[in-house]
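Hi R.,

Here are the chain sequences for the assembly we discussed:
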Amino acid sequence: MTVTSEPVASGLRLDGVRAGYHDADVLSGLDLDARPGEFLVLAGPSGCGKSTLLRSVSGLHPVRSGRVLVDGQPVRGTSADRALVFQEDGLLPWRSVLRNVELPLAVQRIPRAERRERAAHWIDRVGLAGYERYLPRQLSGGMRQRAQLARTLAANPRIILMDEPFAALDVRTRASMRALLVDVWRANPTTVLFVTHDVDEALALADRVAVLDRGGRIAALVDVPHPRPADPSTADNAAAKARLLAALTEEGA
Amino acid sequence: MTQVSVAEPAVADPPARPAPRPRRRPSRRWLLRAASLVAALLTWQGLTAAHARLWVRFDQLPTVTDVAEEFVHQLGTAVYYQDLADSLGRILAGFGIAAVLGVGLGVLLARAPIAADLLQPLFEVVRPIPAIALVPIAILLFPSNEQGIVFITFVAAFFPILVSTRHAVRAQPTIWEDAVRTMGGGRWRVLRTVVLPGALPGVFGGLSVGMGVAWICVISAEMISGQFGVGYRTWQSYTVVNYPGVIVGMLTIGLLGWSTSAAVELLGRRITRWLPRSETR
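And here is the predicted structure of the full complex:
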């Protein structure tokens, strides 16, 4: 099966972004750049505003000052260009796997036949072929995250925002989900912003890791040498891990 | 597609299938249910046929056989079916309007703060008034008794449906809405795809309660101001000292209420199949 529509990756720039809840700012003047097609991981202590950052980029959470720019254009509200993947699955429990994956395509008013074809392609791609008619509650946590990934990729976003998507999974499932993500991202290099607590996960996935401090600013940027999957035994990778651990320890993560 | 191929996808964890349900043999359960009904009927027949006076005066009541004879007799008359049709029509009209307005306004109250500020105080004042206490108002307001009865039925069913819908919408996890919004979905898409289907389990709770109180009120209203209808006929039988007729009326009301509630329940279960629930019933 061929799925046409080549994905396009967008550049992302955050320029002095301030955002928060009630009286408190969670992000206080954050600057960050992501190249088109870059896999950028966000790490940092809990409560440092990683999730708020993703929600601000997605358009779900308002920015108090500063700008979020996608390809140089300021974002206004949510859009299909910026997909958000949640930690708990955001699947609609009354829709089958197929109908969940089709949903973003229905929102984009894509004709039914093409919708079916693209959804089926991505369901197959994440390894859920045969489970199209299953309801989310009939699937394991790992399979639900696969379905959510298929739904996200089917929408053909330019930026994918992932908020600790594998944190609730067991170690083995997490490893296989990582491998799957790297695999599909290689084939369709979209810009990815990925939040995690897990140093090994960060190193396995990232081109770069941005470490946030408790004030909601970037404390360190660590380049991760490749090829993927990162081999922890090489000197470069060991050095990257050491730098990342040092930065995280300093921020009290 | 029904292929439940156990051949797992290359990199997957096995599906969490619903556990096999524990159950008693169904025939035995039906036997128990029937036995409870038969025991009640036998007790009633015994007490009334023996003219038992145990402070409560069973000698005044018709026996099961009297009632059965009267029931068979009434089933052969056209007026019985006319009464049925009248009561059902009133219920369906009142309940139908209440369902549409209750769900619509319930969603509006939950989603639009302005609507909540405008309407909530009014509803809170009117809600505690029993619908049947509105009979005088209904008589004054509406040109015919028929419309008044439908109005009272509507008021009775409206509030449970409204309140359940409002709660169901408010209780929804925001993640569903966030997911659809980040797909680029607007207000209507969110309403259609998330808010309404997600609220259905709660809405059906309200519809069940609403159907119950709708019957209470339609029968009471018919007894007070009806012409035709099961409630009217039941009271009529009492005034002409046809006690078996009264019981027949009561049984008819019971059966009608039961079957309409069952219809709502069945529809609700069909529509909310996605809910995790124990499958022993």
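The longest helix of chain B spans residues 187-225. Residues 4 and 15 of chain B are 10 Å apart (CA to CA).

Let me know if anything looks off.

Best,
T.
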